[in-house]
């Protein structure tokens, strides 16, 4: 298993370009199954989760090539709607294939995606939404069969603004007969990107970015080329790392409008932020101030995907901060590792009380999930001494070679890879 070796204490500086959004590319790759033919998707990041999604599409009969940040996919040869169990288990986001495969083939078989370190990750809202459109669902052993001779538009209200359920329903409803009005929908920028992609294929979707999305079903969709939006969570992770190391950095190819909640918190912590339409500049000189209370909740509130990262900054701040996690029930797995690095954090149910300390100390720590792993990298960059982050594959799911991003900003870190060592390429 790869490790990241980090020598902390260097203020990050320089300029980096932010890669495309994992959480936009995954549903859009799934949505490409709604049309038959060749498409080119640009700004697709090179991540483990993208590799798994492309692997699933290939197993379903598609031809897909990922060169640089461009995916060329031909969905015309797809001949199966049975998502392979081995790949389904690797990535929960395979659930995004239900809507498109059901709409195209009238039947889809997936496996329970299972939870991961951050919580149960139920899919009841996905299944209820597809049933409302006319699907019959049968669960046996670990398999979930979903069939519909015809999908019919209807009014659907989500009990919770689930990102994935919103996306699955949008994709299935795009080819349904009639109109679907989806209320209490998720409002994330990735939902808007999916709407724009569906409409580029000839769908008729409006309202993404608000809590009510209207999808007027059409008979067929056409293949199209498309460019994925920047990854707001990767941008946010980089900003927090710069703040924690008291550096000065410029991010390009990002979208400040997708990061309003984070930029507000960073300014409250005393960090200087400048933003234009696709550039963010951050200047952090002194010790950050504590932020009295941060509550994660669906967009446009503070994102749960930046909770573990911002906790590192708060752990170094001057004062007491409260972090409340309301989206996932198990997303504090990074706290124990931060405490081992000298942080003063106590957890009570879904609240974390963070009393800032002057410095953190390097240690050998383990990534438990994608964003917790990114938080440990930030902690290592800010800490005094050497940090080794293990189980780096979690981080590679959502960051394209995170060590290169921070090396470009002067961070003293490198990857140790047993596989490369064996080949004497390390
Ligand atoms: C998406 O996951 C993102 N993943 C997650 O990012 C992100 O944390 C999450 O949205 C919230 O913003 C992708 O887009 C690939 P949800 P998703 O459905 O769709 C409960 C990352 O780090 N729920 O909005 O799975 C669920 O248990 C990942 O990039 C149900 O109860 O999130 C959770 O508590 C992590 N029933 C809450 O809703 C359902 O049917 C939010 O889940 C579905 C969800």
From TrEMBL:
Pathway(s) where this gene product acts: Cell wall biogenesis; peptidoglycan biosynthesis
UniProt keyword list: Cell cycle, Cell division, Cell shape, Cell wall biogenesis/degradation, Cytoplasm, Peptidoglycan synthesis, Pyruvate, Transferase
Catalytic residues, chain numbering: 116
Reactions mediated catalytically: phosphoenolpyruvate + UDP-N-acetyl-alpha-D-glucosamine = UDP-N-acetyl-3-O-(1-carboxyvinyl)-alpha-D-glucosamine + phosphate
Cited Pfam families: EPSP_synthase
Chain positions found as 2-(S-cysteinyl)pyruvic acid O-phosphothioketal: 116
Assigned EC number: 2.5.1.7
Residues given in the record as UDP-N-acetyl-alpha-D-glucosamine binding sites: 92, 305, 327
Boundaries of every Enolpyruvate transferase domain copy: 7-403
Superkingdom of source: Bacteria
UniProt binding sites for phosphoenolpyruvate: 22-23
InterPro entries: Enolpyruvate_Tfrase_dom, Enolpyruvate_Tfrase_sf, MurA_subfamily, RNA3'P_cycl/enolpyr_Trfase_a/b, UDP_GlcNAc_COvinyl_MurA
Family: Belongs to the EPSP synthase family. MurA subfamily.
Function, as annotated: Cell wall formation. Adds enolpyruvyl to UDP-N-acetylglucosamine.
HAMAP family cross-referenced by the UniProt entry: MurA
Protein's recorded name: UDP-N-acetylglucosamine 1-carboxyvinyltransferase
Gene: murA
